[in-house]
Amino acid sequence: MKIGITCYPTYGGSGAVATALGLHLADRGHEVHFISYAQPFRLGGFRERVFFHEVEMEDYPLFEHPPYSLALAVAMHRTALREQLDLMHVHYAIPHATSAWIAREMLVGRRDLPIVTTLHGTDITLVGLHPSFHEITRFSILRSQGLTAVSEFLRAETVRDFTVPKERIEVIPNFVDEAVWRPDKEPCHRSALAPGGEKIVMHVSNFRAVKRVEDVVEVFALIARKVDARLVFVGDGPERPRAVDRAEELGVRHRTVFLGKHASVDELLACADLFLLPSSNESFGLAALEAMASGAPVLASRVGGIPEVVEDGVAGHLFPVGEVEAMAEAGIELLKDDPKRKAMGAAARSIAIERFAASAVVPRYEALYRRILHGGGTK
Ligand code: GMT
User: Fold this and answer.
1) Nearest atom in ligand 1 to 287's CA
2) Mutate to test the pocket of ligand 1, among 5, 150, 152, 283 (most ligand atoms within 8 A of CB)
3) Dist. CA 118 → ligand 1 center (Å)
4) Is 144 in the pocket of ligand 1 (CB under 6 A)?
């Protein structure tokens, strides 16, 4: 098949999943065309059958906000014609599902371009709910021939808030490549991150408010009273200065490393003894899944789709949002008991591989594409 993929190219789970999906599809013999305003952050060097088409946008003084959605629709339309695309798969509904629908309309009479939209999170739970986006989001996702959500939680939210029939949405979870995300990754950066042999507590995110990065620091500060440990932050975003300030206020700045955005998160997660994800909401929590596959137990909030990924008491522990003391206690217990922590890390990896392996999930997308191309949609 010849598949167009549009995602946000920036640091974030939806772009990471879309890119991994495209690369796996290419490995399986399909031709994949990424269409976005920049190269997706996890799209590395040259790969056979993988192409990137940059959306060109004319800037003009009249535009305070250049109309990207239109330029994207034109790029999709052009790529579909030039590359003879069979199907367009967009990740994150806003504005991608709308642009894809426009491109499909523009192609009427020349080429059929079925659309698959994968809902990832705030396109449904936050941004899509805003009155300025709600109607167009509902309209656009209902016009997709295939509709997927990354968790049961997100499907239920979509059914409730956008009155989309449940059977229109197929839950296809996010996935990990077990060969990439693994505990024995080389090179290991443990001695650079914790030169004194300290335990490593890690958090990976785009530092948006929903991630509650100050809670990460608070949990760590309590852990650090009892355990010789270092906190490693990977990623960047608007809340980073607050995390830095909080680390200073709590006297743990010298034990905290801010690495910023990183291309090889797999190499870093392999060094983690414990992973923290105290988000206020998460439709899935891809970073938690990547940590699990890397053999790290996860302490996270019991919200959204996280319980579908992190099995409480097996792959880690879940807590009500904001319960930093309880989270820290669980962290101390695990970090002081190596056999227990390692057993939990091994269980976490087993779950990641058994339930979320790329080799099992990617064929589900392929099957959906085939059904659509044979005239059916989401089951
Ligand atoms: O929804 C967002 O705000 C952005 C998006 C992203 O690009 O990282 O995150 C969502 O999609 C990820 C991949 O499916 C999920 O792992 C995240 O849980 C989800 N974020 C939220 O629900 C807040």
Assistant:
1) 16
2) 283
3) 11
4) no
What is the Å distance from ligand 1's center to 191 Cα?
A: 31
pLDDT in tens, the chain (379 residues): 999 999 999 888 999 999 999 999 999 999 999 999 999 988 988 899 999 999 999 888 899 889 999 999 999 999 999 999 999 999 999 999 999 999 999 999 999 999 999 999 999 999 999 999 999 999 999 999 999 999 999 999 999 999 999 999 999 999 999 999 999 987 678 899 999 999 999 999 999 999 999 999 999 999 999 999 999 999 999 999 999 999 999 999 999 999 999 888 999 999 999 999 999 999 999 999 999 999 999 999 999 999 999 999 999 999 999 999 999 999 999 999 999 999 999 999 999 999 999 999 999 999 999 999 998 766 5
Q: For residue 35, which of 75, 69, 66, 65 has the smallest C-alpha distance? A: 75
User: Which CATH number fits the domain 190-356, given the four candidates 3.40.50.2000, 3.30.420.40, 3.40.50.300, 3.90.550.10?
Assistant: 3.40.50.2000
The SS3 call for residue 181 is coil
Non-local CB neighbours of 359 within 8 Å, separated by 6+ positions: none
CATH T-level topology, domain 2-175+358-373: Rossmann fold (3.40.50)
Q: Is the CB of 120 under 6 A from ligand 1?
A: yes
Find the 213 Cα to ligand 1 centroid distance in Å. Answer: 16
Q: Is 129 exposed, middle or buried (0-12, 13-18, 19+ CB in 10 A)?
A: middle
Q: Does the beta carbon of 329 sit less than 6 angstroms from any atom of ligand 1?
A: no
- Regarding the beta carbon of 284 and ligand 1, being less than 6 Å apart is answered yes
Q: Are 1 and 369 in contact (CB under 8 A)?
A: yes
Residue 22 Cβ < 6 Å to ligand 1: no
Q: Using alpha carbons only, what angle is made at residue 310 by residues 304 and 313, rounded to the nearest 5 degrees?
A: 120
Same fold for the pair 2-175+358-373 and 190-356: yes
* Closest to 229 in 3D by CA, of 325, 332, 342, 329: 332
Give the position, in ligand 1's atom list, of the atom nearest the Cα of 13.
Answer: 8
pTM of the model: 0.95
